[in-house]
Amino acid sequence: MSPAELAARLRSGESFEGKTLDGVDLRGQDLGAAKLAKAKLRGVRLDGASLRGANLEEAELLDTSLERADLEGAILRNAKMLRVSLADANLATADLRRVIMPRANLSRARLKGADLSEAVLEGADLSGADLERATLHRTALLGANLTGANLRGARLEQTVLSRARLVRANLEGATLDVVLFHEADLRGATLPKQLGKCQLDRAILSKLDRNRDDGTVLPAEDGEAERADLAGRDLFFASLRGVCLKDARLSGANLEMADLSGCDLTGADLAGANLKRAILTGAKLVLVNLSGQDLEMTMLSEADLSGASLEGARLVMTRLDRSILAGTVLSHAFLWGASLEGASLEGAKIERTTFKTVDFGGMDLRNLRLAGLSMHRCSFVKANLRGMNLSGCDFTHADFTDADLSGAKLTNATATQACFMRARLETADLSGAQAKGAFFGDAAAAGARFSGARLRHATFTGAEAGFAHLGGADLRETLWVRAKVKGAIFGGAKLGYADLSHADVREADLSNTDLSHANLHNVRDTGALFVGANLLGVRRTDLDRLEAEAYRPPPREHT
After folding, report:
1. What is the DSSP letter of 191?
2. What is the DSSP letter of 13?
């Protein structure tokens, strides 16, 4: 049968369903709406042929060429194509659902309005192809080449474009939902405004990212941007892990809940960007301006914020563990519930910054200027504050358990109900401090100054405050059970109803103190001075109680 006769039969509507066409040359033939469902085409030449509306459902095409063929409106659903060329072909509005054609040549093909849902096009060449308004639902385009492709208004849902080349591709107005752009090359591409839930991990967005981690250097591309431009884009819940965004334009972008772990954002423009609940773990944010930003629940653990500005920023429940904040501007910022465990704050600028329920546990804070700051409910457990100027600070309900405050200056500070359990306060100065209800249990406060401090209801049980200065302090109803205050100076202090049972006040100066109704049960007061002290109602050693306290059960007899 001659090619012309075969073409005539196909054009007449004769069904070739399930038949095999081997090595037939039908180039330039008008085949009309040929019926080739489930047919097997091997080595067939269909270049320039007309197959408008043809039915090739479930057909198998092997080593077949359809270059410049007209397949507008054709049905190729579930077709399998291997080593097929459709370069410059017209596939507008064609049904290509679930078609399998890996590494197919579709360069410059016209696929306007085509349906490629669930199609497998891994490694395919779609450079210069027209995919305007095409449907790419769950389409596999892994490693495909879409350089210069037109995807305006296309619908991409759960589409896989990992390692694909989309250099200068136009996606303006495209609908993207959970699209995978892992390691995709998007240099010079026009991206839509909505990129929410897309995954762009290690994608290439500018020429700054040509040098890859594996040592390869990507060639320069015409039209590639000097820096990534995602300004105003909606990247809600998107993933951009490891993307180079150095000097990128991200102003006004919605990055809420976006994952930017490991990104280089050095010098990026984030003015007006939404970074709430974003993940920036290990990101590089050197010299970035985040002034006034709302960083509520943002993950900045291990991030490098050297020289960055967080002036006036709101950091509520923000994670800054092990981050680098050297030289970072935190002036006027509000930190509530933020975690700074292991962070480096050397040289950070902290002026009129408000800290509330912030965790400074284990940190060395000696290089910071904290005087006069509000630090309600902050945790300084095991922190190093030795010799620091903390005068005028508000430490209400703060926790200094096991902290080192030796030689620190806390004059006129507020530490209401703060906890200094086992803290080191040797030679610290708390003169004039307001620490009502504070807990100094087992603290080491030898030589500390509490002159004029308001410490009513405070607890010093087990504390070692030898030679401390407590003159004029308000110590009413305080607990000093088993405290060691040998040689301490209490002159003029108010100790009414204080409990000093079992305390060691040897050689202490209690002259002119108000000890009315104080409990001095079993106090060791050898050499102590009580000149002019008010001892009205003082309870002395109760022998019966002392005997009961000293009671020890007899040793058990071994039988």
Report:
1. -
2. T
Determine the 3-state secondary structure of 361 from DSSP: coil
pLDDT at 182 over 60: yes
Residue 269 neighbours by CB distance under 10 Å: 19
Q: What is the DSSP string of 137-188?
A: ET-B-TT-B-TT-B-TT-EEES-B-TT-B-TT-B-TT-EEES-B-TT-B-TT
- Domain spanning 1-95: which superfamily? E3 ubiquitin-protein ligase SopA (2.160.20.80)
The amino acid occupying position 139 is T
* 180, two tokens: 């995978």
Closest CA to 186 of 197, 199, 177: 199
Q: How many residues does the structure list for the chain?
A: 559
**Tens of pLDDT, residues 133-157:** 999 999 999 999 999 999 999 999 9
Q: What is the largest CA-CA distance in the chain?
A: 132
> How confident is the model over 77-104, as a mean pLDDT?
98
For the chain, how are helix, strand and coil distributed in percent, rounded to 5?
Answer: 5, 20, 75
Residue with tokens 């609908």: 175
The 10s digit of each residue's pLDDT in 368-398 is: 999 999 999 999 999 999 999 999 999 999 9
Q: CB 478: neighbour CB atoms within 10 A?
A: 28
CA 415 to CA 431: how far, in whole Å?
Answer: 12
What's the pLDDT tens digit per position in 190-238?
Answer: 999 999 899 999 999 986 555 445 544 455 555 445 689 999 999 999 9
Is residue 209 helix, strand or coil?
Answer: helix
DSSP 376: E
CATH class of 440-559: mainly beta
Cα atoms in the Cβ-side hemisphere of radius 13 Å centred on 222: 2
Mean pLDDT of 39-53: 97
Task: Please give, one letter per residue, the 3-state secondary structure of 542-557.
Answer: CHHHHHHHHCCCCCCC
DSSP track, 251-317: TT-B-TT-B-TT-B-TT-B-TT-B-TT-B-TT-B-TT-B-TT-B-TT-B-TT-B-TT-B-TT-EEES
Specify the domain boundaries for CATH 2.160.20.80 within the chain.
1-95, 440-559
Q: Tokens 């929410």 identify what position?
A: 196
Instruction: Take residue 559 and report the two structure tokens written for it.
Output: 């039988």
pLDDT score for 547: 65
pTM: 0.81
Rounded CA separation 492/469 (Å): 11
| Residue 279 near residue 260, CB atoms below 8 Å | yes
Are the beta carbons of 65 and 46 closer than 8 angstroms?
yes
Residue closest to 40 by CA, chosen among 63, 18, 8, 7 = 18
